[in-house]
Amino acid sequence: MLTTMKDLLSVAVRERFAVGSFNIANSEFVRAVIETAEAENSPAILQIHPNEINLMTDHFAAYCREAAHNAKVPIVIHLDHGGTVEDVVRAIRNGFTSVMIDGSHLPYEENVKLTQEAVRIAHSVGVSVEGELGTIGDTGTSSEGGAMDIIYTDPDQAKEFVDRTNVDTLAIAIGTAHGFYPKHMTPKLQIDRLKQIHSRVDIPLVLHGGSDNPDEDITESVKYGIGKINLSSEMKRAFFNELRETLQEYPNGYEPDVLFPSSTAAAKEVISRKMKLFGSTGKADLYGASSKAGLLLK
Q: With CB atoms counted within 10 Å of each terminal CB, which end of the chain scores lower, N or C?
């Protein structure tokens, strides 16, 4: 069942759970996310970065949309870290039901202006918009990048940003980073800052850099408005580590039905564990038959 981010997360925040947003770069990851979501009876988000859509082309988006339509649980297709209005328009034309416009590295007023334009375009066709205020860290282990020096989200500025842009969700910076943390970096989320933002902002908040953080920090963050948690590196590492082992076992192997099944299963184990951690397992039932009819997108 394909739905919008706004509809998906309105239930999540009300019921105090978060929905995993999983970066997908091939059909194996699409299958892993949707099959696990159905097994866990959990909503889920298929998240595609511009790098990933460039790799797989627009035809991949059509495949994702069909897979989401046929899913037995609520699914969103989301553009991750769109940097330009052109990225947003491309995603909308490809049938995405949610887009992120990331102006976090711009001066504040330019971020506001860019986000306002993305919201104007997306809302005109019923697509949800995620903005970002503050910067996510960069561990140097992810193609998504980030900032070497994290600029933490100011709670008062967050309220102003939401009021001026009318975004549906807001990605905030409270200490996470994209990719895996090197040994000299110890992740610690600023929960007190999150509480202050949550007290001022009445839309779902988004946590980027969901991999490699302490479980207790993730659980605590969900109590204070985090409705969407991005996850990429842990899932991909499980997949490709298993694939490397399979290739060692079958050094001359080349058939996908031999090489990929165990890798997909490894990714599914991570997805399942994260859905339980985020609290979304079993929550698809909250999107009842009457609401599902309203959420379904043609």
A: C
